[in-house]
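In response to the reviewer comment on reproducibility (Comment 2.3), we provide here a single inverse folding case reported in full, input and output, so that an independent group could reproduce the run without further information from us. The structure tokens appear first.
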């Protein structure tokens, strides 16, 4: 326990798994936490004494089962192993922490998501500049950026790190700027001082300057990146050969998607449970590394027309050559997750089966290299040139490791025969023993004349000779009797004891030789980390482009025309997610959208609830985004002038945990748009102002439309969906604002949603009709209709509406049965109104009730 307490003190705030024999044990508070999270039994040591301690543990071979549960529960877990063989020491076994696992520092397949990166973010604020680094230990990816708070917030939203590290002094400021949704860990100030961080980067990459990485002018970013490496070192991760490069995130290269847009367009996640998002529709990739790259492309669309066109041309080529596409996809499936596989080799944590998977991957790389070297596409030719089959190391693996090795090195039989002479000799001794034993048995049987003699083994005294009582008198004196049975005697000989020791010693030596040879192989493979990582990057890109071609065929997408113009012209556009969830046999109703800064900058879209206004807004944003990541789009035809920022204000929700109302959330999002406009922005506004009173809402919405139209430098393309039909008046005074509506058809008090965008404004919302579809009680709907008619009749001004509402409220106290236009009920009402109850006798009252009852029956 003293040893435990000493180690525990070095890792405060960490749950310590302490190896004791065949178990990992936890003590005290750790045991209480572990038992609760893992559902294991909590016991006590020293029951009833003053030193009574809570205890909970699990078998060491179950670590892979229990560790992920602890980390997913937000625990930092230190794994403390025995550092020496208990047989070799007479004192307490030496122990130490061999690994510290946190949510952001893990490569375990059971902890991290296969199709998502697992980023550790390191952040540091220096006056106005904020530096940030993103490091994925499982892939070796290392990125750095520097900018203002808004830019860093956008990056955090895009990369979604599993853990953020920062200085203790900046914790409160971090929460104010970026919220409380991140798992954070604060560090002491000293790693952020002096040149410690920069020197750490230079030492790791073995360079004299960071100029070669293009980050030398990012001092705050360098500081954040250096501390990220320091943190890996502190968490006992020192084999970091796979972190072979660091690159900067170039802000100018990518479209701006703020956190509201990523959330509102539901690109890679949704606040709605079980919702299907865009990445679910677009991701049919063949490998996890392709899936991860696709997600990164989705949150970082390109702005450069040339780069977008290169991707689109590649997709077009694969779409036209489908046999080649299918053959490439088949080979890429054989590669698997090469990115994470080579990272495990860098960490010296790869198991034998993963080494065999690497060998298979390199054979698949050779096939891919020949398939892409066809000269028909410059992109394919470039990919073929970049692929390295790493033949020497591939053949080395083939010669060294068995084709079907066990998962764990400790299981043995990993190294092939013929690799090491001593290993082969010891294997013959250990595993070729049956022949030798049969030889001894035959020799002794012939020498003694005991034909029934047999050799066997037990755990008590090893190998022995068994003789039946019939032949007991034939046993030589040199045999040593060990056991007497009812019908037989058991003996051992010096020769058998020597052979037994030879076998037991051979097994230990075999394990030691296999461990040594396997370790040497891992180091040899580690020399190939850079070319194999380059292979992984090329294949991931190829995987995404092939995936785009596949879904273009499957979902009937078309190639967009992307240019430097400022126009947006979509013909026959469809929402890529909604169309995948339509009932079988139902066609998606397509819509055209045209925007340009000169003639039709802003479209005001009115129309009933449920008609499809929000879907139209979202589909426009998604089509633009799909085009700029290099994907074909869900439209018949699309001409897209590059957009540098997509802003959305769609839907409303209370942020109660932060004390913000629906309206406050709405205004925050809208303010972010108005303060970050550019001439190439695309703005999607849905129901601005609905979180406040009608007149406030109309005023704000009207002012926003005016502001966007009259902005002196930025004519941002805008789709503005609203229920405020008063905004239709704007087109009379502002030439670049046009009215459209999502049409409906009324038939016999029913509304049919045509979901088609047509020119002109709409005057009705049909909200009561939607309430009927939702199953509202008929009495309530009738009352709502009556109120609506009264309001529409007296819709002349504020006071008139208030007076009208007072009359309606007064009327509401009357019997609700008369709110229904039924002639029988109206007749009953008139009868009751004409009664004078002061002169009515009881008999007359009963007669009147009888008359009313007969009326109702008829």
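Designed residues, in position order:
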């Amino acid at each position: 326990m003293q040893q435990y307490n000493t180690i525990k003190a070095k890792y405060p705030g960490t749950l310590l798994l302490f190896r004791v024999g065949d178990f990992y044990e936890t003590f005290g508070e750790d045991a209480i936490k572990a038992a609760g999270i893992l559902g294991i039994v909590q016991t006590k040591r020293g029951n009833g004494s003053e030193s009574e301690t809570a205890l909970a543990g699990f078998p060491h071979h179950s670590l892979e089962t229990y560790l992920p549960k602890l980390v997913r529960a937000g625990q930092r877990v230190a794994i403390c192993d025995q550092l020496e063989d208990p047989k070799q020491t007479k004192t307490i076994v030496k122990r130490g922490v061999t690994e510290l696992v946190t949510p952001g520092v893990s490569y375990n397949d059971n902890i991290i998501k296969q199709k998502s990166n697992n980023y550790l973010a390191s952040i540091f604020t220096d006056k106005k500049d904020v530096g940030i680094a993103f490091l994925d230990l499982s892939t070796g990816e290392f990125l750095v950026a520097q900018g203002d708070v808004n830019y860093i917030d956008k990056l955090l939203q895009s990369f979604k790190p599993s853990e953020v590290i920062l200085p203790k002094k900046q914790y409160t400021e971090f929460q104010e700027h970026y919220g409380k949704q991140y798992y954070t860990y604060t560090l002491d100030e000293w790693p952020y001082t002096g040149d410690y961080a920069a020197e750490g980067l230079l030492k790791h990459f073995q360079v004299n300057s960071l100029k070669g990485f293009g980050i030398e002018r990012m001092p705050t970013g360098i500081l954040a990146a250096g501390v990220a490496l320091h943190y890996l070192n502190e968490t006992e991760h020192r084999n970091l050969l796979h972190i072979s490069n660091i690159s900067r995130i170039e802000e100018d290269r990518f479209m701006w998607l703020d956190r509201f847009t990523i959330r509102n367009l539901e690109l890679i996640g949704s606040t709605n449970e079980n919702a299907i998002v865009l990445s679910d529709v677009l991701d049919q990739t063949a490998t996890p590394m392709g899936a991860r790259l696709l997600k990164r492309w989705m949150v970082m669309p390109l702005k450069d027309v040339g780069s977008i066109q290169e991707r689109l041309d590649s997709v077009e080529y694969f779409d036209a050559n489908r046999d080649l596409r299918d053959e490439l996809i088949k080979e890429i499936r054989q590669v698997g997750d090469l990115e994470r596989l080579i990272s495990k080799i860098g960490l010296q944590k790869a198991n034998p089966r993963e080494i065999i998977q690497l060998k298979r991957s390199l054979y698949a790389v050779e096939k891919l290299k020949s398939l892409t070297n066809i000269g028909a596409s410059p992109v394919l030719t470039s990919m073929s040139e970049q692929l390295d089959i790493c033949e020497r190391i591939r053949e080395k693996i083939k010669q060294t490791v068995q084709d079907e090795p066990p998962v764990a090195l400790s299981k043995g039989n990993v190294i092939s025969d013929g690799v090491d002479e001593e290993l082969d000799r010891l294997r013959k001794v250990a595993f070729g023993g049956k022949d030798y034993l049969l030889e001894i048995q035959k020799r002794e049987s012939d020498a003694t004349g005991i034909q029934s003699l047999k050799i066997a083994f037990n755990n008590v005294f090893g190998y022995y000779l068994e003789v039946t009582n019939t032949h007991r008198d034939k046993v030589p004196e040199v045999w040593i009797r060990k056991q007497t049975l009812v019908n037989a005697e058991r003996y051992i000989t010096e020769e058998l004891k020597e052979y037994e020791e030879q076998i037991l010693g051979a097994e230990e030596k075999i394990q030691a030789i296999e461990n040594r040879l396997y370790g040497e192989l891992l180091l040899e493979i580690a020399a190939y980390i850079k070319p194999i990582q380059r292979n992984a990057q090329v294949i991931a890109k190829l995987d995404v482009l092939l995936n785009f071609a596949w879904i273009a065929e499957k979902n009937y997408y078309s190639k967009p025309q992307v240019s430097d113009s400022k126009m947006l012209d979509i013909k026959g556009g469809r929402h890529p997610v909604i169309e995948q969830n339509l009932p079988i046999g139902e066609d998606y109703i397509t819509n055209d959208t045209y925007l340009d800064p000169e003639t039709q900058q802003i479209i005001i879209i009115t129309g009933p609830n449920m008609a499809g206004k929000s879907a139209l807004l979202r589909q426009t944003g998604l089509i633009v985004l799909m085009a700029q990541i290099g994907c074909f789009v869900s439209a018949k035809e699309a001409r897209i002038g590059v957009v540098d920022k997509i802003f959305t204000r769609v839907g409303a929700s209370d942020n109660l945990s932060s004390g913000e109302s629906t309206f406050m959330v709405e205004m925050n999002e809208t303010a972010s748009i108005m303060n970050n406009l550019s001439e190439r922005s695309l703005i999607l506004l849905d129901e601005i102002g609905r979180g406040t009173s009608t007149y406030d809402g109309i005023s704000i919405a009207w002012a926003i439309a005016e502001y966007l139209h009259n902005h002196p430098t930025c004519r941002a393309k805008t789709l503005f969906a609203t229920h405020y039909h008063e905004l239709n008046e704007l087109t009379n005074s502002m030439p670049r604002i046009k009215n459209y509506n999502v049409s409906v058809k009324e038939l016999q008090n029913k509304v049919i949603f045509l979901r088609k965008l047509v020119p002109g404004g709409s005057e009705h919302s049909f909200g009561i009709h939607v309430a009927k579809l939702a199953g509202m009680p008929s009495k309530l709907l009738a009352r709502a209709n009556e109120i609506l008619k009264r309001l529409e009749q007296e819709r002349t001004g504020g006071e008139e509406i208030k007076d009208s509402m007072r009359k309606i409220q007064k009327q509401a106290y009357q019997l609700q049965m008369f709110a229904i236009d039924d002639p029988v009920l109206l007749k009953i009402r008139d009868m009751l109104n004409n009664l004078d109850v002061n002169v009515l006798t009881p008999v007359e009252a009963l007669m009147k009730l009888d008359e009313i009852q007969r009326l109702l029956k008829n």
